[in-house]
Every structure is written in C-alpha cells, then in structure tokens.
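The following record pairs a protein chain with its ligand, thymidine-5'-diphosphate.
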Amino acid sequence: MKKFLVTGGAGFIGSAVVRHLINDTDHRVLNIDKLTYAGNLASLSYVESNARYEFKQIDICDLVSLKLAFETYQPDYVMHLAAESHVDRSIDGPSEFIQTNIVGTYNMLEVAREYWLQLDEKRRGAFRFHHISTDEVYGDLEGTEDLFTEETPYSPSSPYSASKASSDHLVRAWQRTFGLPTIITNCSNNYGPYHFPEKLIPLVITNALEGKELPIYGNGMQIRDWLYVEDHARALVEVVTKGEIGETYNIGGHNEKANIDVVKTICSLLEKLQPNKPENVKSYADLIAYVKDRPGHDVRYAIDASKIQNDLGWTPQETFESGIEKTVKWYLERTDWVEGVKSGEYKNWVAKQYK
Ligand code: NAD
Ligand code: TYD
C-alpha cells in the first residue's frame, strides 16, 4: 500500500486515475485540486467516502499550501495532472496556461525536490514524480504517415501545447540536474465518462441531445488518435509504479480518426440508443455545422505506443467502437452530472466561442 499525491484529481483524467486507484488497488490517495471550472468533485462521488481517499482544495501556484500538503501527507508517489487543458481557451487567453502549466509545474518540482531530499534512503530511492503530458508537444504530423515516438523533436503549435512542452523540459532538467526521480508520459486524445463538454466528443453528444448545432472546425478532416480514459488511467499507474526513472513513455490507442468521422459515429450511435429526438431534429447528423477553423489547428496526431507495450506490458482494453458506445451510454444515463457542469461558467464559454 503506497501513498499517491495526485494533482488535478477532480478533472477528467485525474478523476479516472483516482477512481482506479481507490476501486482497483489498496493504495491511498491525496487529491490536490484548485477546482477551476474544469474540476468537479461530483466526478468522485463514488470514492469520496472511502477512508483511503482525501481531498484538499489547493492551487499548485500556492507554494506554502503545497509544501504543507507534502509534509503532512508524506507521499511515496506524485502524479501531476493539474493543468489548463483546452486548446481553444489557450488561444482566447493564454495567461492561466502559463501560470498553472509552467509556474505550477515548477512549484511542484521544487516542493517535491525539497521533500524528497529529506526522506530516508529507502523512501528516497523509491520516490517517483510522474508528470502527465500530451502528444501535442510534438506538433503536427500533417501530410506524413509518421507516428510520434519518444524521440520526436518538440514542435508545439498552440499556447496550450507550448506550455505543456515547457513543463516537460522543466521536469527533464530537474531529473538531470538535481537527480529528482521523474518520469514523463505523453498521451493522445482521451475520451470517456466525466469529460467536460467543451471538448469535441462530449460537446457533440450533449449538443445533439439538446438539438443544438454540432460545430466542426474547418473541413473536419483533422485526425486525432483516441484513447479511452480508463485505459489511460491504468497505463499511468503502471508507469509510476514500474517505469524507469528519467524515461518518457508515449501512450496511445492506435485509433486515428478524422473529426468528421468521429461526429458521424456519435450521430449514428445516438440514432440507435436515443431514437426519441428533440422536436427540431429529424436526424442527428443534420445538426452538423461547419464553422470557422481554429487558428494554428494541428492537422494530425498519431502515437507509436510500442515502448510502453514492450517495456511495461500495457495495452488498451477498449477499441474505439466499444469505448465510444460506452461513452455515449454514460452521457445518456448521467444527465445529472451533465446538468451540473453545464451551468454557470460553461454557458459563458459556449456563448463566446461559438457566437
Ligand atoms: P481537465 O481540464 O479535465 O482537468 C484539469 C484539472 O486540474 C481540474 O480538476 C482543475 O481544477 C485542476 N487545476 C487546474 N489548474 C489548477 C491549479 N492551478 N492548481 C490545482 N489544480 C488545478 O484536464 P484533463 O483532460 O483531465 O487532463 C489532465 C492532464 O492530462 C493535463 O495535464 C493534460 O495536459 C494531460 N493530457 C490530457 C489529454 C486529454 O485528452 N484530455 C491527453 C493527454 C494529456
Ligand atoms: P479537442 O477535443 O478540443 O481536443 P484537442 O484540440 O486537444 O485535440 O478537439 C479535438 C478535435 O476536434 C480538434 O481537431 C478540434 C476539433 N473540434 C471541432 O471541430 N469542433 C469543436 O467544437 C471542438 C471543441 C473541437
């Protein structure tokens, strides 16, 4: 039984990691989260009363509170997921991305280093700092058949991916210069339950159910490599417990799909699972609307996940077909969760972004 300090555990992927650790292992978890618009404790309602789970509302930019949390909790492993994560918001206002993703990661590294140095030899040797990052740091694979490997040079396109690339560089520098035992993972696009409906897949599902437009940026031919979030959560726990210090592991599902095909798949699933449509809708696919493209839009991402498969034996359990059906069914069932997150701030974002 180990103590995990997870940052961003009230977000989409962080909450899947916390649920996995509490439901499927004997480990303990301290979840540190600022609870921005993207953080939602309702995503943790099934684990919050478990004695192995604790939550502290802390901003990773607040050094004093972070230090205190490390000192009192005494973690064995740190899994750092807290971040601003939405590309469109980073274009609208990059400032929070610089603060949380770069300065916040710097704080995490410094607090972890100070804490790690005073551990006894055995615990210091076993300590790990796992930084969770994205394949978007590698940039755009437009016009090639290439896959991102761990050796692909960084070439980020958006303020979001540039801020994540910066944080990855800081983590590598802290490992090389100070010997902090870090590991980095770079993962492709996730989808699944508890996904905030500003991102493509949950936006399309929830808009379709309300008879609203399904906005496709540009020509809809951009390609993403989709991974079911619970497969990602399992991979992350494998990496932090079994991965090699100083290594990077790419994580992906070999599910390259054009955006328009993802949206059409969701529409046909809804035809089957929710034939009872809003009054204005004859067919869900009629709601598809091509809108102005995202500035700097990356055309293609695709991951070579052979290293994590060969070294750690991890493989995804869901295909895109099984995962997307589970996801659509989840959104049909959990209308309480969707209503909760769609109130307030979400409405302002949608009005601004899709005006
Ligand atoms: P998310 O936006 O759903 O959740 C982020 C969480 O971090 C929220 O709970 C939020 O409240 C918290 N947070 C934000 N700023 C904070 C701060 N200053 N202090 C403490 N907590 C703060 O993000 P996600 O999709 O779950 O992504 C988690 C991590 O995985 C991110 O680092 C992201 O870059 C990375 N990632 C995401 C994807 C994806 O497809 N979503 C893919 C690869 C990697
Ligand atoms: P998104 O879910 O924001 O993830 P990311 O930008 O990190 O890949 O977007 C996935 C793809 O869908 C991306 O190519 C942008 C596109 N997209 C749309 O076409 N319409 C939308 O309303 C959104 C949010 C995204």
